[in-house]
Amino acid sequence: MEINLRRIDDLHVHLRQGEMLRAVAPYTSRVCGRCLVMPNTTPPIATADDVIAYRREVADALGPGCEPLMTIKILPTTTPDVILAARRAGAVAGKVYPAGMTTNSEDGIPGEVLAVEPPFGYASYLPEPRRWKSPSRAFLDCLSAMQDCGMVLCLHGEMPGFPVLNRELGFMGTVAKILGDFPRLKVVWEHVTTGFVAERVRLWSDQTRGRIAATITPHHLLITMDDVIGDKLMPHLFCKPFAKTIEDRRKLVEFATSGHPSVFMGSDSAPHERHRKECDCGCAGIFSAPVLIEALAEVFEAEGKLARLQAFTSERGADFYGLPRNTGTITLVRREWTVPESVGGVVPLWAGKTAAWRVEEAEVNS
Ligand code: DOR
Ligand code: ZN
User: Fold this and answer.
1) Sign of the alpha-carbon dihedral angle for 345, 351, 354, 359
2) What is the atom index within ligand 1 of the atom nearest the CA of 286?
3) The pLDDT of residue 124
4) Regarding beta strands 91-96 and 152-155, do their DSSP bridges make them parallel or antiparallel, or are they unpaired?
5) Would you say the CB of residue 156 lies under 6 angstroms from ligand 1?
6) Do strands 91-96 and 8-13 pair parallel, antiparallel, or not at all (unpaired)?
7) Is the CB of 103 within 6 Å of ligand 1?
8) Is 268 a catalytic residue?
9) Measured in angstroms, how far is the CA atom of residue 349 from the centroid of ligand 2?
10) pLDDT in the model for residue 148
């Protein structure tokens, strides 16, 4: 059995820098026509000059078959001029990391700036008006500049101060407020992990003519919190946002396989060296690039939805970002193989496991 797909777009990937970048990038370029490269490097990608330099480094590591799409990190100090210059330098999206919510986000936007009144997520059921609790003018001006220059807003949608399992819920009012206050801004709620938020994004997308979309990772389609902490502690399955319940996973699978225009793949593949995961204070992040399309094929196959895989991996995201769909192809064959235990010093998703699908051929975009 064989599946032919358009080359895929990974619209959320961490490629890092230097040696790590060179070790992991080939796993992305083997199947992706494009990838949206996250800016939470050290130091962050925060200016037009950073975008230009980082794109050069990333493009070298990816090679000719995969085009990097660049992002900037919106910091409390970011100004509209910085946004406009980054856009001119080719950045397609600006990423908001609420401070402290994930790897390298300590310099992100503080929770007080992002929170809306009333603060709890269920409040987004309530009618307007919702008010910003203590917005910073600088932050709102940045959103306005992004709207004006056509830069997509990518959100790590977790609210600081909320309990870890409710952080996504705590962010809902903020997203509702942003959609209402910036009526031409396009928004991606990244790596959605709860059924509740998946349903909201779908609804908001229908209500806003597709101005909001969600990305879903392969790991959130595969694991729940029980896989991470239910038995022994599994550091290589620890990520942010933390995996949730079996009911949440079910809703995410339904959403991902629905073919709805508001959902597409962003792997959040996030390599950390083994010793940074297997230690005191281990880092969040799952390195899924080596099994990305193979794992997704298993999820879609189990649902009897293989025919929808291409929409999720190669069409809806391109359409949302206003990009032509990839013309290159990949061929997956149902042939078992064993996922390596370690790749460049990083333990990948499914390490040591047998995967059912294998990429046999790939052709780059013409
Ligand atoms: O688990 C995660 N790791 N989630 C993120 O949002 C960031 C990522 C990383 O950079 O390691
Ligand atoms: Zn990420």
Assistant:
1) negative
2) 1
3) 54
4) parallel
5) yes
6) unpaired
7) yes
8) yes
9) 15
10) 98
Q: Is 239 in the pocket of ligand 1 (CB under 6 A)?
A: yes
Mean pLDDT of the chain: 95
Contact between 208 and 260 (Cβ < 8 Å): no
Give the separation between CA 45 and CA 80, rounded to whole angstroms: 16
Nearest CA to 337 out of 352, 354, 351 is that of 354
- From the alpha carbon of 97, which atom of ligand 1 is closest? 6
Which of 161, 221, 225 has its CA nearest to residue 191?
221
* Cβ of 285 less than 6 Å from ligand 1: yes
303: Cβ contacts below 8 Å, ≥ 6 apart: 253, 257
The 10s digit of each residue's pLDDT in 67-101 is 999 999 999 999 999 999 999 999 999 999 999 99
- The per-residue pLDDT for range 167-183, each reduced to its tens digit, is 999 899 899 999 999 99
3-state secondary structure of 331: strand
Determine the average pLDDT of the residues in 224-235.
Answer: 98
Compute the distance between CA of residue 286 and CA of residue 234 in angstroms, rounded to an integer: 11
Ligand number nearest to the C-alpha of 193? 1
Of 148, 268, 280, 319, which is the active-site residue? 268
Sheet holding 329-338, edge to edge: 2-6, 329-338, 354-363
**Candidates 107, 242, 283: which one to mutate for ligand 1, based on the most atoms within 8 Å of Cβ?**
283
Instruction: Show the DSSP H helices in the chain as ranges.
Output: 18-29, 48-62, 80-88, 111-114, 137-149, 172-181, 195-207, 218-222, 225, 246-256, 274-277, 292-302, 309-310, 316-321
Tell me: pLDDT of 306 over 90: yes
